[in-house]
Structures are given as structure tokens and as C-alpha cells.
């Protein structure tokens, strides 16, 4: 006999009885669940197929015959021992039977995946939390990264826990919710986009969900750091490396643009003209627009600005909205006052 391994609640299940009459003509087949008859086929009867209306199963008669029986949307009560009994024709009426157990499970809802951000940089760590709810038995959670499987036993997977759901609403036996976390460091060799999957396994069956996160390249990370006015690259060696990389990437733009670079002391003022300039800050602190009390830490200046530093601070201006790589070829700023 062949039965699903396992059967899934609210899904159909087909059971097959495998037999050979050994030369005798087939006469009948009978199916039993927990010792009670629920379907029979008797050759020559009218009707030949009979549904015996067992309380625990609903037979799909159109999809049942002399070798198989199909059950509609099985419930938890459909679990148990099944027996098929085959009988040959007269005069011997030889009879044989076989049994098999059917286990019924409930697959979890679609796993819920959560990350703190949609993009990461090399050197950072992605923490993916996955929760699979309302399953019987409790699901085992594993992960995948761009199709590469990361098993539940991996050191990168942390099992947060399994909790029992309240009541018996989802399954008569009860149900469980499992939560795990994938801890994934972003390495230099990581691709620019990571497709992360969470796989909830119940026996041999699984449900999966997927999300994608972007990995910023080293160069794009440098751009975003400077445009946000973030303090970084404090060492001379790092600054030289950054400058060379930016110059190679933006050689054409640098030859067409003009930029200024200087270092402001606290209280020193720079006056800009109305020319859509781009301002970049390095180090800490900010520049304040005089007479309005507004701070500016980076971005386009599309009006006449008079800016005053609140502490010693490096800054640069560029007419072409270029990133801070232009500092390598900088000239004094347009106007400086004390």
C-alpha cells in the first residue's frame, strides 16, 4: 500500500493498494480506517463503488476505483491505520490485505522574514529573523543565501525558540510557532544583491519565503559616508587610498569641474554665491547659515549662503556636485572672512 508521507490537513490524499491477483479474476476491494469500512468496489454490483460515509474521511468517488481511493481535504481525524482488502472471484474468493499508517500534519503559515535595513555594506552583519506560525508538529527552520542552503545546525543560525499556540483553533492537536535568526556577515566577495530564504520544514514538506537585500560596493559606501557628513577615514593612508580610488572613477568629471577645499576654524565664515554649489564636510561639527540659525551638513546650496563653522572642520565646495575626491586638486575657497 502507498500512502502520503505525510498527509497534509486541508489537502486531498490518495491511497493506493498494490496487488496481484495471481491469475484469479478481481472481485472486490474494501478500504478500512481504524477497523471501520469507508469505501468498497464490488465488481458487477449496482453501483459498483460505494461510499460508506465514515465520519473521519470524505471520499472523492470520481477519483476512486479498484486500485486507489482519494480523500478530499483531509482533517486531523483522518490520521490512523488504513487497510485495503482485495478478494478474487469465485469459487475460491481468495482474500489478502495490507495495512499502512497515515500521519496528518499542518504546514505552517508562510514564514515571516524581517531585516532591519534593505541595504548593507561590506563588514556589516545582516540579521534575518524568521517566524513560522501555526504548525503541527513544530517546524524546523533553515535558511538559504542565493540558493545556497544553510542548515538549522549551522553556527550562523540561532534558534530563538518554539512556542505553543493558544487553543486548538488551527489544529485539534494544537499547533506551534518557531523562530530562528540567520547571522550573516557581509564579506568582500558577497554579490551586490542577496536573495535570502527561510525554509520551514515539517517532516518531508516545506514552506518558504524570500526577501532581497542590497550590498553596497566599497566605492558607493564612501560616497554615502561623505554625502551624509559622517566622520570617517581619519588616517592619512585611508584618505590617500580614498582619493586615488575616486580620482580614477571620476577622472572625466574632475577635468571639467572646479572645486575648492579648505579647513575652517571655529567661528570662521565662508560666503558662497548663488551657483548650485555642493558642500561636503569631513570630521565632526556642522556649518550654520548666519541670520537664520540653520545648519547644513552636506548637499546642494542653491542660494547665497553665508556659513559659519561651529568648530574646526574640513569642507569642500564643488560646482558640479562632485564627491569629495575633488579635494586632491583643490584651490582656495571663493571668499573667506574671519
Summarize the structure.
This protein has 338 residues and is mainly beta.
Structure overview:
- Helices cover 9% and strands 45% of the residues.
- Strand 3 and strand 4 form a beta hairpin.
- The N and C termini lie far apart (94 Å).
- It has 3 domains: 99 residues, Immunoglobulins (Immunoglobulin-like); 105 residues, Immunoglobulins (Immunoglobulin-like), CATH 2.60.40; 119 residues, no CATH class.
- The protein is elongated and about 100 Å long.
- The C terminus is likely disordered.
- The strands form 7 sheets. The protein has a 5-stranded antiparallel β-sheet with strand order 5-4-3-7-8, with no helix packed on it.
- By secondary structure, it is mainly beta.
- The chain has 3 helices and 27 strands.
List the defining traits of the structure above.
single chain, 338 residues, mainly beta, Immunoglobulin-like, five-stranded antiparallel sheet, five-stranded mixed sheet, 3 helices
Mean pLDDT: 76
Tell me the major beta sheet. 5 strands, antiparallel
Strand order of the largest sheet: 5-4-3-7-8
**Overall spatial form:** elongated
Q: What Rg do the Cα atoms give?
A: 36 Å
Roughly what fraction of the amino acids lie in strands? 35-45%
- Compute the number of helices: 3
